[in-house]
């Protein structure tokens, strides 16, 4: 497993002209007990700094920049407006999430997986994946531990319209680590969704279904592999999130 994510491997060695992968899951989402954290963001930043002869926090691996969420002065400059001296990390991270929700425009097809987070930051537009990477880069540029979360969001159809099968899509958000809440059921993670301005301990809400976590999207791609031979190919993806009740 990588970052506690379950993975499966398989190979199809016979010639074929099509491949269909189906996955069904039945899940139950819950909310963890509420809690507050008063630890300042500087204290949390210092918690992850290296000290000789002392074991580091295992979550330090989420402090460093990654391919899709690098540490950069532009992200630092954007984040600092919410991180005044001595401010507790929890409200600072929540305010940063709310600012992104106000400052950025969600625009489908405006970016793709290869669009750098810095470019999306400058354009102030993108999709949930871009916003998650930007938020990660901002938090890491502040010296904080933050991870990428991939999953699904239960979407409701407009009033009077039927739910369309396959119309949902994967979703992405971020979470920041609060050492003060390490013993809480959330295990120290405050989830932040800048696309919808939703935050919460362990999850932004009960209508979210977490699939995997990692340093960025490269760690949590639902399906990846290598194709050999053949010509052009097309990919179609359909997701349906339906409440059982």
Keywords for this entry:
20% helix, globular, two-stranded parallel ribbon, single chain, 245 residues, alpha+beta, 5 helices, five-stranded antiparallel β-sheet
Structural class category: alpha+beta
Distance between the termini: 32 Å
**Helix count, DSSP H or I runs of 4 or more residues:** 5
- List how many beta strands DSSP finds: 7
Arithmetic mean pLDDT = 90
Supply Rg. Answer: 19 Å
Helix content: 10-25%
Tell me about this structure.
By secondary structure, the chain is of the alpha+beta class. The longest helix has 15 residues, at 89-103. The strands form two sheets. Strands 6-5-4-3-7 form a five-stranded antiparallel beta sheet, covered by helices on one side. Helix 2 packs across helix 5 (128-141). The protein is built from five helices and seven strands, in the order H-H-H-E-H-E-H-E-E-E-E-E. The chain has helices at 41-47, 73-79, 89-103, 117-123, 128-141, and strands spanning 105-106, 125-126, 146-153, 170-177, 189-193, 198-201, 208-214.
